[in-house]
């Protein structure tokens, strides 16, 4: 089928028409022929064999049986009546039951004629029955081209109500496939023969109407591979073209600032992982392409030091650097930490946020323009037009998923060539997901903790053990440590959550009376300045216990806090639990995390608690989270363009994803512009798939 036919509006398909077309568009997003072809079954009904009544099992499976009806009668019920037919084969008997449509059935059923019935079984008091079976005379069933595995397509309530049943969709699909006898091949011969793939035509036929279970498996593999192959091709090509087209500043030397920091200021020996990542960055900065690198590392793995040393490389080459953080608290903490490290080597660092005073801003802008300022740290305020650098060479972005593409684009315009970009995130993204979401960024991972960091001990306790937990809090506070107590926040029931928080606060106040103990509280209903005041008291150690909803921002650093209590832990996702746990364990003391839950836990809830107590490795946790929640929920919907997969599944099919990525790699390494003779078919398909290219694609 050629591209033009594939783009035909769905109303022109025989059997659709305007009314059905509207429903298909609104309910299933099917606008054109190709949308229907890519509407894949989510399961298949096996009609390849007949069961005997004697071998039926008590399961909800759908079965097909050959037999005859020996008698039909009605049975009165509280409301109305039901129609019951005795159905038997040579091994036993069962009942067929109808609750509606009696008249039609009574008129059409033949006693003692051979029938094929199909449907779900009910098992009651030792015997089987089948409500509302699909029923067909054996003679008629024989004449139909028997599709052994019948497709079942996703549906909605509205479609069922309006009579667009699974049978209707199957019929439309069949007529479309008959009309489009063949499909243009989209994969090159060497890939086809290497992986022994079905042709596109065979795969399309067998995914909708499989001739056998084996062919169905091959068809699914072929189509999943193709889907991943083109997504990976797009991301890798974007990355390759980016490196060719988008020139960056070349940092030729590692100079005095970097060396004197490394030799005399660096407070500890770098870990092997930090050294490896710095080498990767150094290589990027020395080439003439613009760096676009994602730096992943768990909470406390030392990303900030790597970022600072990267900034020093920029300064050594006569450039300025900036660091953009999502919140004021976070920006201030970065500023305090980095300016202390930079002071001994004479690097000038400033902070710019929404609350920087006007007269200070004026001086700051002046120093930025004349190049006296080396590093500027701040919030969104950095990208305002009034902020002008003398020579911005590197932008570091902390927790990138909080910044939109448009905001990052503004950073690009701060110099004649775009600055190098280093994106840091403490949210470990499973490898498979990183390949698909950030395939166009180069990824570096810091996967070991600095020496001297003790792993946080995590335990799970039920509500009934609360008094023991309070005693543990007392012991920690008496040792001079600080404690977080966190309550969940779920938008829909803000009042209920507020009550939870206030009840919790009251019980903690009773247990830890003033003046011996001081308690801070932070929640969403407070004014920002009150929040900041309470946070500040805790950071400075004036209060020992911080009671909060999950508004305690990513990255708040209180080295003296050694205990994290998470209330109603079953109401948090895994990555949230892991992020919260990372608030403690920042000092030299042994830290603890206590997960408190109710007695009743779902199986997912149990898995989450077991995972948290078993491991501190963010990547392991992210893998489990991906299995539990699926990719869409993990990244939020803003990334869903890449994840809008029609047949493949990132979790179940990650082996196919890896295979597809390595093939895409070969192609792009050999031929980034897809110009070689043997890649013409890929080029054509690629152009059809990704028609609207915009500059946004480069700014990622």
Explain what you see.
Keywords: ATP-binding, DNA damage, DNA recombination, DNA repair, DNA-binding, Helicase, Hydrolase, Isomerase, Nucleotide-binding. This protein is α/β, with parallel strands linked by helices and 700 residues long. It is built from 25 helices and 22 strands. The strands form 4 sheets. Strands 6-7-4-3-2-5-8 form a 7-stranded mixed sheet. β19, α20 and β20 form a beta-alpha-beta unit. α9 crosses α10 and α11 packs antiparallel against α13. The longest helix has 33 residues. The two termini are 36 Å apart. The C terminus is likely disordered.
Topology of helices and strands:
Elements lengths: L2 H4 L10 H12 L4 H5 L5 E4 L15 E15 L4 E9 L2 E7 L3 H7 L5 E7 L1 E3 L2 E5 L2 E4 H6 L5 E4 L4 H5 L4 H14 L9 H6 L5 H9 L4 H33 L10 H10 L6 H15 L5 E6 L5 H14 L3 E5 L3 H15 L6 E4 L5 H12 L5 E4 L13 E7 L6 H8 L7 E6 L5 H7 L4 E5 L10 E6 L3 H13 L3 E6 L6 H18 L7 E4 L5 H12 L5 E5 L11 E6 L7 H8 L10 E6 L5 H12 L3 H18 L18 H17 L9 H10 L11
Parallel strand pairs: 4-7, 10-15, 10-16, 11-13, 11-14, 12-13, 14-15, 17-22, 18-20, 18-21, 19-20, 21-22
Antiparallel strand pairs: 1-9, 2-3, 2-5, 3-4, 5-8, 6-7
């Amino acid at each position: 089928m050629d591209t033009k036919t594939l783009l035909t509006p769905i109303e022109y398909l025989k059997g659709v028409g305007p009314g059905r077309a509207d429903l298909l568009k609104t309910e299933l997003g099917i606008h054109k022929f190709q949308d229907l072809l890519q509407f894949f079954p989510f399961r298949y009904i096996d009609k390849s064999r007949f069961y005997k009544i004697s071998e039926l099992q008590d399961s909800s499976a759908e079965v097909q049986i050959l037999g005859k009806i020996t008698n039909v009668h009605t049975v009165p019920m509280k409301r109305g009546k039901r129609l019951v037919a005795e159905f038997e084969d040579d091994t036993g008997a069962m009942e067929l039951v109808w609750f509606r449509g009696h008249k039609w059935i009574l008129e059409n059923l033949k006693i003692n004629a051979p029938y094929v019935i199909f449907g779900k079984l009910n098992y009651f008091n030792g015997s089987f029955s089948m409500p509302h079976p699909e029923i067909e005379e054996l003679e008629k069933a024989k004449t139909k081209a028997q599709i052994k595995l019948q497709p079942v397509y996703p549906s909605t309530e509205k479609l069922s109500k309006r009579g667009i049943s699974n049978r209707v969709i199957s019929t439309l699909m069949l007529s479309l496939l008959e009309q489009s006898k063949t499909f243009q091949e989209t994969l090159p011969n060497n890939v086809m023969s290497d992986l022994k793939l079905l042709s596109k035509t065979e795969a399309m036929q067998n995914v909708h109407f499989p001739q056998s279970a084996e062919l169905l498996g091959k068809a699914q593999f072929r189509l999943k591979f193709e889907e991943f192959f083109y997504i990976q091709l797009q991301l890798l090509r974007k990355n390759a073209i980016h490196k060719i087209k988008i020139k960056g500043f070349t940092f030729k030397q590692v100079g005095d600032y970097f060396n004197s920091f490394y030799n005399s200021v660096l407070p500890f020996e770098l870990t092997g992982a930090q050294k490896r990542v710095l080498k990767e960055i150094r290589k990027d900065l020395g080439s003439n392409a613009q760096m676009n690198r994602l730096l992943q590392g768990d909470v406390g793995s030392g990303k900030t030091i790597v970022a600072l040393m990267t900034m020093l490389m920029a300064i050594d080459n006569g450039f300025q650097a900036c660091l953009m953080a999502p919140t004021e608290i976070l920006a201030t903490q970065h500023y305090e930490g980095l300016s202390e490290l930079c002071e001994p080597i004479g690097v000038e660092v400033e902070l710019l946020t929404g609350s920087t005073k006007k007269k200070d801003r004026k001086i700051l802008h002046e120093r930025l323009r004349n190049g006296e300022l080396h590093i500027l740290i701040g919030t969104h305020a950095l990208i305002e037009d009034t902020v002008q650098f003398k020579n911005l060479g590197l932008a570091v972005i902390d927790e990138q998923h909080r910044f939109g593409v448009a905001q990052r684009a503004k950073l690009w315009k701060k110099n004649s060539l775009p600055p190098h970009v280093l994106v840091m995130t403490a949210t470990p993204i499973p490898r498979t997901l990183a390949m698909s979401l950030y395939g166009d960024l180069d990824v570096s991972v810091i996967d070991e903790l600095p020496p001297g960091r003790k792993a946080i001990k995590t335990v799970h306790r039920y509500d009934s053990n609360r008094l023991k937990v309070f005693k543990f809090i007392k012991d920690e506070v008496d040792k001079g440590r600080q404690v977080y107590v966190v309550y969940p926040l779920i938008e829909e029931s803000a009042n209920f959550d507020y009550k939870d928080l206030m009840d919790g606060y009251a019980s903690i106040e009773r247990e830890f009376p003033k003046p011996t103990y001081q308690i801070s509280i932070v929640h969403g209903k407070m004014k920002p300045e009150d929040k900041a005041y309470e946070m500040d008291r805790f950071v400075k150690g004036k209060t020992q216990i911080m009671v909060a909803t999950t508004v305690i921002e990513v990255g708040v650093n209180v080295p003296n806090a050694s205990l994290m209590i998470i209330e109603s832990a079953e109401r948090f996702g895994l990555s949230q639990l892991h992020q919260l746990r990372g608030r403690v364990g920042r000092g030299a003391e042994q830290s603890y995390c206590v997960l408190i839950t109710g007695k009743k836990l779902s199986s997912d809830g149990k898995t989450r608690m077991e995972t948290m107590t078993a491991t501190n490795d963010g990547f392991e946790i992210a893998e489990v989270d991906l299995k539990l929640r699926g990719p869409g929920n993990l990244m939020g919907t803003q990334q869903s363009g890449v994840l809008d997969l029609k047949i493949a599944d990132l979790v179940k099919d990650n082996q196919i994803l890896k295979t597809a990525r390595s093939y895409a790699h070969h192609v792009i390494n050999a031929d980034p512009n897809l110009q070689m003779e043997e890649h013409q078919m890929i080029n054509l398909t690629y152009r059809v798939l990704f028609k609207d290219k915009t500059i946004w694609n480069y700014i990622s």
